[in-house]
Every structure is written in C-alpha cells, then in structure tokens.
Write a structure and sequence with these properties.
single chain, mainly beta, SH3 type barrels, signal
C-alpha cells in the first residue's frame, strides 16, 4: 500500500444537470444573513457556479464562485422572493467563503450553543454554533456582530469544552490493528490503517518532525460506495466523478473525526481533525486514500 494525501475537488456535473442551471440562468442566492437575493449564473465549472447579484448592476467586483452542493442556490421560480431580498447584501456577507457540503446534508437541526473554534485563513477563532444543516454549521464569532455569522463546513471546525479549552483524548501511539495487502477487501480497519500510515510517514524525529505519532478515532462513518463513472460534459469532455481516482474504480467515502497525537522527544501534542476521505485502489493496484476537504 502507498497512502498519500491528494487534495481533490469532487466533481459535481450531475448536480448542474439536475438543477438545470447554466450561464444566464436566473436564480436566487442565500447569503449568511439568511435572506435570498436575485442573481444570475455567469459561469459554470465542474463543481461550482459563479453568480452575479442582480442588484450590483454592472459592478462585477462581488461576483463569487459557490459550490453546487452548498444548498444556497435555487431557481428564481421555486418560491416567492421575500421582501427583505430586494436589497443587495452587505460586503461582509457577500465575501463569505464558499464551502462544499454533501448533497445528502439537507435537513436542518435544532439551534445549538456548542462552543467551537473555526479556521479562517489558517487562524483559529472562537465561535458558537447557532444551527446545523448536515455537514454545515452556522457560527457566530466571539466579538463580532451577527452580520459576520456564516455557514462553514465541519472540516473547518474543532470542538471546545464548556470552559473554552480544546477537546482532548487519551493519546495512544499503538498503530491500528491488522495487516493488509493490495488484495485485502475494503474494511473500516483497512481505512483506519491507511490514515494512520499517511501521518506516520512523517514521524522520523528529525528537526521539526515528531518521533512517533498516534491516531485516535472518535467518529467514523462510511457512506455508500460508488463507481467512478465517466460523463461526457459539453465543453469539457470526459469527466470523472472523482478526479483523483481511476475511471470506474470503486470509491469508498468516509466521514471521520480523529485526534493526531505527536511525540516530540517526550513532549506530547495533539490536534483534532474533522474531514472526509475517499478510499480506492489506484492505477498501480494499491489501496490509497485522498483527503477531500
């Protein structure tokens, strides 16, 4: 096996076809304020729509790419536009970073007061979760007004305790059990070992690298496996569902939360990771994984 980290963008051409949006489509967009604004699709990629707010007229400085699976774009014909949506959103709201969420994550959860930290441009900011919608959480940042509330994917969030400190686990440096080969069938144990092996390859004790690592899983949920089929997308040609895997490979998606423990010559540190992985057999016939967010 040869695990490696491959940052990929899960292609969403099937979403575009299902919604029927294309360049020039009239839509409504929900910004972080919760109001819907009339907009026009001005460009389309495999996984995102570029939208222009109709209220901005000829000003294109706030045109923004939004992931198709985020769930904040709807046809202008699906619902009557609320009175609050006639204005243009504030610059703060319009600048929200688009974050992908799985199509299945649609049902809203009750309001929450969970304390978290949110990663913004590499910095962690304390916040409170106001509500959840599948893998998305609407958060309110400490010390900021409600205009800066925004939806973020769970991969940008880490949990805090009630007193505001980071959630920790009892570190274990024992590798996940099991011995696997390229012919081993898909299993939770194999996938956990793949994740461990990826982090462990950096543990050599030199300079700034740890002498050993441990991975403690606190959440692990396998989704339905799917075939990496190829679709002929007009203007783009043959397009795979998962760009990092071979055509027609079986993809095993997994959502997981785990803590990576690192031993720096007796000093132990740990960090929480919330992420989605895809596991598959690569072009060389070896099991591997990609970190999808």
């Amino acid at each position: 096996m040869k695990p490696y980290l491959l940052f990929v963008l899960l292609l969403g051409c099937y979403t575009s076809l299902a919604q029927g949006f294309q360049r020039g489509s009239k839509v409504e967009v929900e910004w972080s304020s919760g109001a819907w604004y009339p907009a026009t699709i001005v460009d389309v990629s495999d996984s995102q729509f570029k939208v222009h707010l109709d209220g901005d007229g000829a000003n294109t400085s706030r045109d923004q790419w939004i992931f198709k699976t985020k769930g904040i774009i709807r046809s202008a014909k699906t619902a009557a536009r609320p009175a609050t949506a006639t204005a243009t959103p504030t610059a703060t709201a319009a600048a929200s970073r688009p974050v992908a969420t799985p199509v299945a994550a649609q049902r809203k959860q009750p309001a929450s007061s969970k304390r978290v930290e949110v990663n913004e441009s590499g910095h962690w900011y304390k916040a409170t979760v106001l509500e959840q919608k599948g893998d998305l959480s609407r958060v309110h940042f400490d010390g900021y007004g409600s205009a800066d509330d925004k939806w973020v994917h769970r991969s940008y969030i880490r949990s805090l305790t009630e007193n505001g400190s980071a959630v920790t686990v009892n570190c274990s440096f024992t590798p996940p059990p099991g011995t696997f080969t390229n012919s081993s069938p898909a299993s939770d144990a194999l996938f956990k070992k793949e994740v461990y092996d990826w982090y462990n390859r950096l543990a050599n004790g030199t300079l700034t690298r740890p002498s050993r690592i441990g991975v403690v899983f606190t959440y692990f949920s396998r989704g339905a496996a799917y075939q990496n089929t190829v679709t002929n997308v007009p203007g783009r040609g043959a397009t795979r569902k998962h760009d990092g895997a071979p055509a027609n490979a079986t993809i095993y998606p997994v959502k997981m939360t785990f803590h990576v423990c690192e031993d720096y010559n007796g000093t132990i540190s740990q960090k929480q990771v919330n992420s989605d992985f895809s596991f598959f057999i690569d072009r060389d016939g070896a099991w591997t994984c990609s970190k999808d967010n």
